[in-house]
From TrEMBL:
Residues 26-160 form the MATH domain. Signal peptide: none annotated. It comes from the Eukaryota. Residues 196-259 form the BTB domain. PANTHER family: BTB/POZ AND MATH DOMAIN-CONTAINING PROTEIN 1 (PTHR26379), BTB_POZ AND MATH DOMAIN-CONTAINING PROTEIN 3 (PTHR26379:SF293). InterPro entries: BACK_BPM_SPOP, BPM1-6, BPM_C, BTB/POZ_dom, MATH/TRAF_dom, SKP1/BTB/POZ_sf, TRAF-like. Pathway: Protein modification; protein ubiquitination. Belongs to the Tdpoz family. It comes from Nicotiana attenuata (Coyote tobacco). PROSITE patterns: BTB, MATH. May act as a substrate-specific adapter of an E3 ubiquitin-protein ligase complex (CUL3-RBX1-BTB) which mediates the ubiquitination and subsequent proteasomal degradation of target proteins. This is Btbpoz and math domain-containing protein 3. GO terms for biological process: cellular response to salt stress; protein ubiquitination.
Length: 409
């Protein structure tokens, strides 16, 4: 908990502020009891204690009562407490006792004071020997047939959170931390070809890069250079089935973590060119395991869907498992089916992904059905006011005097 306090005097020179911070210093102790059956019969009020452990500058210990702490319970329950084992006055703390399930099912029995912190506040221990815990921690007959007892052994985990309060005054310094420029710095290293150790031959162009950076960003390059069958000594790689401009854009992302200016790379101002490049970059990102780049391309293509490119983008989304992009394209194509079918991309769609045609027809049917429902709702809404908008139909309206007026539309 943090409390801000500001004291304003008569002038600016007397203004002051402070901050009270209440927090817990937490620590845990694992306590194991072996030979549980031999501890039974000690009698109520008799205990087994853990070694002391220190949390928040105080010593603590766990007390386990195999026959219970109270005589009146007649050894029906086992009792567990956490005690302050060092000198202290009004030590405020939160506690948690966990009896561990030893079957591996993870069904531990947890008694936590942390969960009730906002209800009752921390527990105060007045002096050395003060305790927090449960007289009736667990019914003994149930405990002895449960998964908490295994091989005559009990195991529990104890957590103590000592409450500390501190006051912070105003800071007499202000350091402005600039935003990260790692991407810009790495991009500079790429552009300046500093320390490059690998050449990529892509078409008629050569690109220099750094194997370590490529391996850090792409699992495909990592396997190629440093995997079991990789060659860390290779200094030349020839890539096929990728255009130089696409590889250049991908390198830009690998080093800067940003999409490049595609129109600048392509040397064109055409939106269609930008979309086509984005399609190819998405395919390259999928090929080299660049998931973030793939998702950036998918998001961009969702924004740029149009009648000229929707068919090829739909085919791309199917081939590279871009589900959101696929849904956007199907809906757009279904809504503009006549125009889309006249595009060159639709022929490509028929040849490359014929299975998509049935999905497209289903989407068309769904769109038509929704349109029919909406139209029906509009007619129903109009009929409420006595208007039937069907061509040539006679419409009725109700006048304020409750007389029906019939008129020909």
């Amino acid at each position: 908990m943090i409390v801000d306090y500001e004291d304003r005097g008569g002038g600016d020179d007397s203004d002051s502020c402070s901050k009270s911070i209440n927090e817990t210093v937490n620590g845990s102790h694992h306590f194991t009891i072996r030979g549980y059956s031999l501890a039974k019969g000690m009698g109520p009020g008799k205990y087994i204690t853990s070694d002391t452990f220190t949390v928040g500058g105080y010593d603590w210990a766990v007390y386990f009562y195999p026959d219970g702490k109270n005589i009146e319970d007649s050894s029906t329950y086992v009792s567990v407490f956490i005690a302050l084992a060092s000198e202290g006055t009004d030590v405020r703390a939160l506690f948690e006792l966990t009896l561990l399930d030893q079957s591996g099912k993870g069904k531990h029995k947890v008694h936590s004071h942390f969960d009730r912190a906002l209800e009752s506040g921390p527990y105060s221990l007045k002096y050395r020997g003060s305790m927090w815990g449960y007289k009736r921690f667990f019914r003994r007959s149930v405990l002895e047939t449960s998964d908490y007892l295994k091989d005559d052994c009990l195991s529990m985990h104890c957590t103590v959170g000592v409450v500390r309060t501190r006051v912070e005054g105003p800071k007499d310094y202000s350091v402005s931390v600039p935003p990260s420029d790692m991407g810009q710095s790495l991009k500079y290293v790429l552009d300046a070809e500093l320390g490059c150790d690998i050449d990529f031959r892509v078409g008629e162009e050569t690109f220099k890069a750094h194997k370590l950076i490529l391996a850090a960003r792409s699992p495909v390059f990592r396997a190629q250079f440093f995997g079991l069958v990789g060659n860390p000594n290779s200094d030349k790689v020839e890539l096929e089935d990728i255009e130089p401009s696409i590889f250049k854009a991908m390198l830009h992302f690998i080093y800067s973590d940003e999409l490049p200016d595609l129109l600048e790379i392509a040397g064109s101002t055409s939106t269609r060119t930008s979309t086509i490049m984005m399609q190819h970059i998405l395919a390259a990102a999928d090929r080299f395991g660049l998931d973030r780049l793939k998702q950036l391309c998918e998001a961009k293509l969702c924004e740029e869907v149009n009648v000229d490119t929707v068919a090829t983008t739909l085919s791309l989304s199917e081939q590279h498992q871009c589900l959101q992009l696929k849904a956007i394209c199907l809906k757009f194509a279904a809504t503009n089916l006549g125009v889309v079918m006249q595009s060159e991309g639709f022929k490509h769609l028929e040849e490359s992904c014929p299975s998509l045609l049935s999905e497209l027809l289903e989407t068309v049917a769904s769109v038509d059905e929704k349109a029919t429902v909406m139209s029906s709702k509009k007619r129903t809404s109009s009929s409420i006011f006595g208007l039937d908008l069907a061509d040539g139909a006679a419409a009725e309206s109700v006048n304020p005097n409750a007389r029906r007026v019939r008129r020909r539309m």
